[in-house]
Amino acid sequence: MHLKVVVDDICPQVLAAVARDASVGQQYLSSLRISASAQRERQSKARALSVQMNRMFLPIEEEITCKRMESGKMLLDIAHLIDNKTIERYQNKYSSATSLLKDCNMQLSGPWPPYHFVHRNQTQHMN
Length: 127
Fold this sequence. Notes:
- By secondary structure, the protein is α+β, with helices and mostly antiparallel strands.
- The chain has one domain (2-126).
- It is 52% helix and 24% strand.
- The chain contains four helices and four strands, in the order E-H-H-E-E-H-E-H.
- The chain has helices at 12-21, 25-57, 87-100, 118-126, and strands at 2-8, 61-68, 73-81, 104-109.
- It has a four-stranded antiparallel beta sheet with strand order 2-3-1-4, with helices on one face.
């Protein structure tokens, strides 16, 4: 199954202020520090959300990427490997997740073939 989760970025205003104020010397170093802190907060929020999704959906395997969109939002692209027998249960959990996580815009597609996870199985069988 494939989930796309769009959520507000934690601190786009901070990053905009950093870009405006970045100049020479100490201000530049300060802006780098603030930018790095904002990036850590963003990664922390994405990690927490992905852990929450994993606990909800209980996939066999997962692959997650997180990107910052030009709109100032974060996009979590989540591929879950699930058993064919659990598709209906997964879709029901998706419905309840959309009502539980009001601050997230979620899209579901699939089921898809396990193409995301093929490389993992091949390396295990080659050893």
